[in-house]
Amino acid sequence: MTPLIDLLPNVSDTNNLHNHFSDTSKIPDDVEKRSIDLSEGGKEINKKAVEGLQVVLSTVSGEGLKSQIYLVDALEGSTTLKLFVHSDFGTNWTAKELKEAPGLSIIGVKAEVVEHAEKKNVPLTHVRVGAFDFFVFKFQAGGTDVKGNVIQVFRDSLKNPLRITSLPFLGQATAQLLLHPDEIANKTYQVYDHEATGQDFVDVLTKLYGSKPEITHYTEEEYQKAIQVPGTSAILAAIKAKWGDDNWGATSPRPEVKGWKSVSFEELTTEWAKQL
């Protein structure tokens, strides 16, 4: 996955917060690097690292998600901080969904970070996305095998839209949001640049290959089994359910991304087909 800093154009006066063991060789030379320690013993170094910062954007993932509580502790009481964009970059999940799907436990960790930040009065901004384009096309997040010309249907996914967020769009949108910290604090933004129904996939693949795709069906049994075990399979299954039920949650606010040259869903699919 492309480092988010590579996707943030035209953002000046940027600092990079990193663990002391992180590889910073790909960070541009004009970006100031500050070492942090997201553990119980990092309080002093973390406080010093965030001094003077107005906006903090976190992109940690996996096991590092919960360590953001130490970053929140460092930001508590800052006289310059305007907002903290925690590492969400996921879709909208309801309490009901999380309760019914034990495999989505990692999403609950994000909620713990948010709760901790709210208790510490650290101003938050949430960036929510659809399914990332590389998950959809490379890892078949919605069940569509573009290279094999096969579409997997679950519930009403043929008629419901799948939200898709391309990484370049996420970078542009996030960069532009960060330029206006006073306006976006304590808000949740929906960032996605494509919506495509299952039928849209059928039509595009038919045009691409000259024949209709094979349609398979994802069963309720397969879904229930997948959402029980924490990991990628549970998340992919939950995305299929969101698509099948059209249960994406809020549709706004969506940031206006100035200068963004959007491509059609057909162009997006065709480009990915060339890479697979």
TrEMBL record:
SUPFAM superfamilies: NAD(P)-binding Rossmann-fold domains. Coiled coil: none annotated. Residues 37-231 form the NmrA-like domain. GO terms for molecular function: oxidoreductase activity. It comes from the Eukaryota. PANTHER family: NMRA-LIKE DOMAIN-CONTAINING PROTEIN-RELATED (PTHR47706:SF9), NMRA-LIKE FAMILY PROTEIN (PTHR47706). Keywords: NADP, Oxidoreductase. It holds the Pfam family NmrA. The keyword Oxidoreductase applies. This is NmrA-like domain-containing protein.
